[in-house]
Each structure stands twice: as structure tokens, then as C-alpha cells.
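Example 5.3 — Probable cobalamin biosynthesis protein CobD
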Amino acid sequence: MTLTTAALVGFALGLDRLVGEPPNAAHPVAWLGRLVGALDRKWSDDDGRQRLVGYAIALVVPLVPAAVAGTAVLVAAATHPVAAALVAGLVLFLTSSLRMLLELTREVVAATESDLETARERVRGLVGRETESLTPEELRSAALESAAENLADGFVATLLPFALLAPISLPAAAAAAAWVKGVNTLDSMLGYPSKPIGTASARLDDLVMWIPARVSAAAIAIAAADPSALRCARQWADSPPSPNSGWPMATLACALSVRFRKPGVYDLNPEAELPALEDGERAIALVGRAAIVTAVIAIVLGVALASLLGTQPTLAVIAR
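Solution (predicted C-alpha cells):
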């Protein structure tokens, strides 16, 4: 069980490192985005009815990628157990993202040294805030905040359920990762206060992200070898409007002894200075290490759960 789960997580991480993100034309998440985009319209002039439609969307849409992923693994299992494992690992790869996040963050940080226009343009791929008036330090803050938040959203949120379920059932593991990615995609596209149709999606995402955000914060503290970063983060974790994003962001700020600020919204670790250029490189390296820490934690928890339930090794279960 341990080797199988670790191998699948390693397979997905290896693909991410070697390939990065597939082109949009071939990326299932982009296909899901097109479906969500088609549903994002005015179904009624009444905000209450729009919210009702939104609840239906939040209930049904994430089940689509979950059903496709789970079925794909089941179909592959009918040919050979190894094929099922490869398909499940591919699902994890497609539903998680680390390399692109770190590369884009690095590009923004580097550009703040001599090319602010490029930094402002590139950081829009990470954050939704207005960037024209941001200083180099505030641009670095925005990029590093996003790196911490997206560690939870884009990596930990799908890795955890996958690793927990993989020793028990590969189809369930793949379906769970795809379902979470569906929830995240809905929230990123619809979950704005100005969109009544996205109210349910935003609330569902808040619920789903509660554990991943806090696990990400713990992983950052462990990777930094600084347990006090979590105690420090507790003071500001509730400052952002999201009930979850403040945890990884504040923990990264405390671990680096820097300040993260979104003007007019929140100020994390405000007694420190905004990030310098070298802080950006330290942050990127720390988020990368935190991803590895999370992978180890997830594998250990998955194997422990399977042992507690007395489950047979994954491939043996599929082969029967």
C-alpha cells in the first residue's frame, strides 16, 4: 500500500515537474471551465432564483469530472491493474499544479527588480487585484501571497483526498480529486459577491478548503523548521475575507519574517517589512518544500487509514 500510493503521488509530481500544465486545448480542467462559462449567465432577473440555480450548479457540476475520472480508472482496471494505477496518477497530475505556480511566482519576483510593467502584467495570472499602483514590494507580496494560497487550492486540496483514498480504492481516489478540482473551478469562476449564481459555489469551496488550508499552513511551518510560525499566523489568519486563505498566507509571512499586504483588505505580520527580492526566492523554495512535506503527510495518513480499516493493497483490490 505504501509503495503504491507513494508511487502514484511521485508519478503525478514527476509529470508536473517534467511537463507542467498541458495546453488548454488538451486540459480537462479547461474543458470544465468552458462548461462553467456556459452556465454562468442570467437565468432569471431575480437574485433569489439565480442563487437557486447556483445551488444546482454547485451540486451537479463537480460530479461531472468526478464521474469521468472514476469511470476512466474502472475501465482501465478491466484491462490491467497497472493501467488503472497509471490513469489514477494521471488524474492527480491533471487536477494538481505546482510547477506553473512556482514558475509564474518566480517570474513576477524577478521582474520587480527592473521591469515593473512586466511584473504587473504577469502577476495578474496570480491575483485579481488592481496592480497599476502597486510598488515593487507590494507586487512581490501579491505574488507570494498567491503562492501560499494556491499551494492549498491547487495542490494540497486534491492531493489529500487522493492519497487518503488511494490505498482503499483507486477509482474513489481519482473521483475525489476530480470532484475537489470541480469545486475549486466553480469558485474561481463564479464565487464572487457580485454573482448570486456563485453563492453556493463559494460556500462549498469554503467548506472543502477548510482542512487543506490548515494542512498547507502546517506544511509551510514544518518545511521552514519553524513551529512558531503557526502560532504567529494565528493572529492574522482571520484577516482576509476568506475563512481559509489567511492560514497559509500568514504562516508563510511569519516563517519568512516579512509582511504581506493587500491594500485596504488585510495586512499580515504588519510589524515586518514587505518582501525584498531575496525574500521572494526564499518563499518560492519554501513553498516547494512544503509541497513535498504535504505529499509525505498525505501518504502516511492514507496508509494509516487503510491499515485501520484493514484494506488490502490497492492493486490487489482492483485485480480481483
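Remark. The beta strands are 260-262, 266-268.
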